[in-house]
Amino acid sequence: MPKAVVVGSGPNGLAAAVRLAQNGVEVTVLEAADRLGGGARTTEKLVEGTLHDECSAVHPTAVLSPYLRTLDLERYGLRWRHPEVMLAHPLDDGACAVLRGSAEETAAGLPAGDGERWSRVFGPLAAHIDTAASDLLGPLPRRPSHPVHLARFGLRAVPPAALMRKLWRSPATQSLFLGAAAHVMHDLRAPMTSSVAAMLIAAGHRFGWPVAEGGSQAITDALIALLHDLGGRTVTGKRVGSTSDLPEADVVLLDTSPGSAARILEGRLPKRVHRAYHRWRHGPAAFKVDFAVRGDVPWRTADCAAAGTVHLGGDPDEMLRTARDVHQGRMPDAPFVLVGQQYLADPVRSAGDVHPLWTYAHVPQGYDGDATTAIIGQIERFAPGFADRIVAFSAKNPADLARGNPNYVGGNILTGANDPFQLVFRPRLTPHPYDTGVPGVYLCSAATPPGAGVHGMSGYHAASRALRHLERR
């Protein structure tokens, strides 16, 4: 039986391990931390009984993932829970645009004149997103399986978000779109910055923006249980700094940043790959604050009170200005803040009337200040009295995030900058982005296509390359 070692136990590492084990490979997963899961972990902290997601929290790409959907993870306890409203984006004048379960429902709630255009833009994408997912969640420079659907998506994905927003007239609708686009964590005037918004909105209209019951850890636990059923092993507390730390194996998969992969493979990488991995760029960072809040957040608008996710970034001009400043290394006074109210769909995360609130702000790469007050200020801006409801909070700056997960270099939770080149050619210019150039060794982290998100597709594709290598031996 061939042997494989997977370094790193994030969703991609675990998906790669499952894929290999399904094909008769003896798999061992090595994790440096004392817990498995990478960005998909959940912790009980602040107040006994409150469950806080450590990084990933809302999972449109998980329910879209062509691979994860084949695994029947519900057999291992995974349950998806959906909020009444997927996403709300409030403005200072009291307007609030809302993303609902279908393009038509969303369009019906948008300001006059915007709904029809929204349906025309996102309705066809949502109708075919599950068919197109195999192309969208894989390396882009290849022959597509569904060229018409991919071309339709490309027309929405390639323009800068700053330009694409002009399809709609009202500031509320433009901000709703730009808030989704802001997940790219890049200057929204750049080409390709509409891509993440197109994906998240279309996936939401088709499958929703669900949370995992009991926290994102439930996704990790289900993958681990499946892997163990297939005969795979997991080892925690095992840091891999070089190939000498690896047990004997026929193939090795690295769920690491390109820089970490280069250090592990020092002296073995082809020069062109070594240069590319060391040139890999990391983008803006996150500053994360978990709150325990007594009672609900006192939002001004009822839509925010029902939303699983709330984007706080103000009007379109403010959104564009903030994204530009963070990209250029300047910390804005009022940063873009994402608020996760997972407990609305999943009440088991709360302790009585004390609820966990998940937040983070976009901040410059390596930011070493304290954004806690700025985050509280942004929430107070749209929910006066919020500060009075805080029971406890815990903040993590970019350095803290990087210590907790070495893939988050400088606090960049996307494992790489999403500039136009790296969005398409990640982690280097090659038709085989998962290959390291070292025979039998593959990169499977979010630095490879399709990028960040709990979808497991980077692991799936890298494992497929590894299986081809084993077949050729």
TrEMBL record:
This is NAD(P)/FAD-dependent oxidoreductase. It comes from Lentzea miocenica. Coiled coil: none annotated. The lineage of its organism: Bacteria, Bacillati, Actinomycetota, Actinomycetes, Pseudonocardiales. Gene3D superfamilies: FAD/NAD(P)-binding domain. SUPFAM superfamilies: FAD/NAD(P)-binding domain (SSF51905).
